[in-house]
Amino acid sequence: MVFVFCFTVKHSILATRCSVRGKVLSNIFQYRTGSSRVTNNVTDNLTDWETLSKKKKISKAMKAYLERAKEHDEFMKKQHFEFNVGKRHLANMMGEDPETFTQKDIDRAIEYLFPSGIYDPAARPLMRSPEEVYPARKAAEFDEAGRPHHFLFYTGKASFFKVLYDAAENIQELQKFEDKVIRKKASPDPNNSLKLEGSVWFTKEQLEKTLVETIEDIEYTNFKNVMERLVSLPYSYRCKDFIEQFRKPLTTQRFALEIPKPNYDEDGRAFITTYECLRKKARGDVTIKSPGTGNISINGKDITYFEDIQSREQVIFPLIFTGMQDRVDVVCNIEGGGPSGQAGAIRWGIAWSLRSFVEKDMLEKMQVAGLLTRDHRRRERKKPGQPGARKKPTWKKR
Amino acid sequence: MLTRNWRILSRQYSQAVTFRTNESSPQQHNEKQTGLFYTLNQDTCKSLFSNGGFPKSFLKQTKTFTETAIMIRQPALDLINCIKSTNFDAPVIRYVLYGEKGSGKSLTMAHMIHYAHEDGYLILHVPWVSEWLRRVPRHKEMSNSQTHEGFVDLPLDAAAWLIHFKTQNQALLKAGELKVSEEYVWSKREKTEVGAPLSELVEHGITRVKYACDVIYALVREIKTLSNKKQCKTFVAVDGFNSFFYPLTRLNTPTKRKVKPEEVTLTTTFLELTKNDWTNGVILLSADQLAVPDDHQESYFPRYLLRKKGFEHLDPFVPIEVGRYTEKEFLSCASYYRDRLWLRGPPETEIELKFTSASNPYKFMEQCAPL
Amino acid sequence: MNSGNWFLIKSLCDLSFRQCRGWRIPPRRLYANATSFPDYFKNPIFRKEQQGKLIESGELSKLAAVPVKPPATYETCSVYHDPLVNKVINHVMEMGKKQLARSLVEKSFENIKRTQIERYHLAPTPEEKNKIELNPKIILHKAVENCKPLLQLSPIKRGGITYQVPGPITEKRSLFLAIKWLLDATNDKDRTVHFPEQFAWELLDAANNTGKVVKRKQDLHRQCEANRAYAHYRWQ
């Protein structure tokens, strides 16, 4: 039987809920911050001086664990201290008030003092509180007698399997409820059904982060299957809180926020300019002028700037979709990329600008048509040892 | 589910738009009939255009539509008015048609030839200059000119053109009033005397292909003198005139040297013809981007296409722009295509086609093809 | 300021700086660029009829709350955009030359139209005139319908012998086979006849249930019928 000790300590600055009573205990509890799992059973055993005097045998594994916990605690305390001191120094250097120096100010200061040309944000210099920098560790999972607190401790991934266990319990409960309702000859109320369109399940990484445990791919697919099954039941709204815990809301309705108001130029016509119209390597900007006759001007030329029909169709697509082809004028400047990329950029630019001139339901229709989504796909690089991005050399069995 | 705007537009487009006119004589065409189609008689078509004059795509369309119909457009009407009000005692006026690719220059020219034919002009029509200078099959029949030193002859092309000239001017030539004023000696045994009818000269050129280019030169000189003497009024039409001024042709001498247009006898002939040193005639030319290779097709303006030499040669001239379809013309064309079963589908297609083809006549026809 | 005080500069940063030899910064991104949208993006619906259906069923606002992929570069909401025609153009395309493929398919449609208009004008009575189909897209639909096989033969090896066993076919594969056979028939032709004309002839033949492609489909069906005895091998 393999003992899996989790020699990890989760840091939280919450005060420990357990009370320190005995002298012996004080040694242990000092180095175990945030171990809220300690129950009163432990302390009950060691209250009176008789039992205290008996030398309690602590197993070697337990000893090693306690030492490491103590080390980690000390280390974190030191890091905290240094972080705070460093923060005050930094504030001093930047000429700001040390009391009101927020994390954002720290970030700005570091960017200023250590300018980095590295593309990946995770590789640039950063200064953060130790909790964010060092990975989280679990609280003590067993008491000093070696008895684990969690009933699923011996699975190795207690919190994960607890989640699955809860889900299974919920499923059974919901099925019993459904049976009851059917016996009463009622049916589910459609208004109460769960609305899950605006969110997705946590990714594997996010799940690992919340549970502070490593998860295999198979286990993750299992988890998703169980949750889908839970959601598919007709009375799943009863377990709404449990399900919401593991759903991440998507950035939605961005297109409906911040619709810009049109400016007015010298002739009194309303116009809107969208800058940064991108598609592949094409960059440009699009201006739509409101009381117009359907003139389209691209880089000073007519729509004949594009010689192939497909690009022209793409440019007029949003205009015809909204029915505004005779009511607005379009002026765009585009450079870079090829005909297809430029046409795509102009299409997005026109659709984005038209938001200000169009009603709300048409806005929803444009969103469903996908006209308002920025196309951020770029060309995939060719990898070494392969002829192309995905193409591989001929596969030889042997 | 159509919104209010869609409904209005569809109503606009589906109303029965009259696109035809019964007036088939170009002399009667006036401003009221812009944008309407008139049909040409089959026999007139054959006599005027059997050897060229219509673009190839248009010929295919005539076959599909089972009729030849040309749209009456503003540039043609302007030309007709100008011609009606010219003073024929003054030196000839040169008109240059210019416009984008596919905007209708050749068809306008065809319209004018029809008008000239009705009016009794003597027609000298070169359907497409690049045929001679740039369309070179594997082996092009070329010979060194005998009358002009160092010049190149195109005997078969010249003979073909003479046939074309004959069919176009059958009536006038048969009437036999046009006589040759000089004597031309072709060889020891062949010569054309003074006073012979023009048709004989033309026949000689067709039968004796070797002398065809010189025959054309002689013909041109004769026609100039006849016009000056007021015995006939001449209408000269050359399509793709700027091809004469492009530095190179695709012709090669047997020594593999590229031939310049100035070294071809036909060029000199037609440059002679288009000089404004004669009266009682009308010259209609067109400067087309398609007449020159793709590298030099940046702009469609005459100053760029005719180059320095051509511009100086033709200066002064009257430029006439042939533009894209207006709204009315576009609608009329669309209803004509629907009538001829060339365009089918809901009325919204027209709105889209207007934008994608940018109202260019040729592009519109192309884009209606698969619909 | 002692550098020792600034301990919280991540060790990874040091590592990466050391990796760039001599502080040379890599010119590209360290991670791959996005080449496709994530799974939770839905497909766009931009045809007027389909949007009309959505509005009737009241689902438009629900879909508007979800991220949606943008429509492809060859898809428009215009009336003459047909997904089947786009598919055929893609199959005709080689080496990514979309413009050429599109012009070939459009020219073949033009040829179909011209032949049909000729026949229309030659037809003596109005009933016959009505029977002639003038829209090339409808002819394409009919031709593809007539060429779609209903079964396919799959090679299954039992006891050393490979049997051709008839089995069901999915809708997608059936469509793919129909288009592939049409293009195969078009491509083995004599050199003088160009692709658009040959394709036009093939489509007209197939729409009439005659011609090489329909024959190939019928041969396949006959083979399947003949091999009916082996059908049980699928489950052995």
From TrEMBL, chain A:
Residues 375-398 have a biased composition (Basic residues). Keywords: Ribonucleoprotein, Ribosomal protein. The keyword Ribosomal protein applies. SUPFAM superfamilies: Ribosomal protein S5 domain 2-like. Transmembrane segments: none annotated. Belongs to the universal ribosomal protein uS9 family. InterPro entries: Ribosomal_Su5_D2-typ_SF, Ribosomal_uS9, Ribsml_uS5_D2-typ_fold_subgr. The keyword Ribosomal protein applies. It holds the Pfam family Ribosomal_S9. Residues 373-398 are annotated as: Disordered. It comes from the Eukaryota. This is 28S ribosomal protein S9, mitochondrial.
From TrEMBL, chain B:
The keyword Mitochondrion applies. Keywords: Mitochondrion, Ribonucleoprotein, Ribosomal protein, Transit peptide. It comes from the Eukaryota. InterPro entries: Ribosomal_mS29, Ribosomal_mS29_met. Pfam families: DAP3. Its main location: mitochondrion. It is found in: Mitochondrion. The keyword Heme does not apply. Belongs to the mitochondrion-specific ribosomal protein mS29 family. This is Small ribosomal subunit protein mS29. It comes from Chilo suppressalis (Asiatic rice borer moth).
Automatic annotation (TrEMBL), chain C:
Residues 75-228 form the Small ribosomal subunit protein uS7 domain. Gene3D superfamilies: Ribosomal protein S7 domain. Transmembrane segments: none annotated. InterPro entries: Ribosomal_uS7, Ribosomal_uS7_CS, Ribosomal_uS7_dom, Ribosomal_uS7_dom_sf. Keywords: Ribonucleoprotein, Ribosomal protein. Belongs to the universal ribosomal protein uS7 family. This is Small ribosomal subunit protein uS7 domain-containing protein. It comes from Chilo suppressalis.
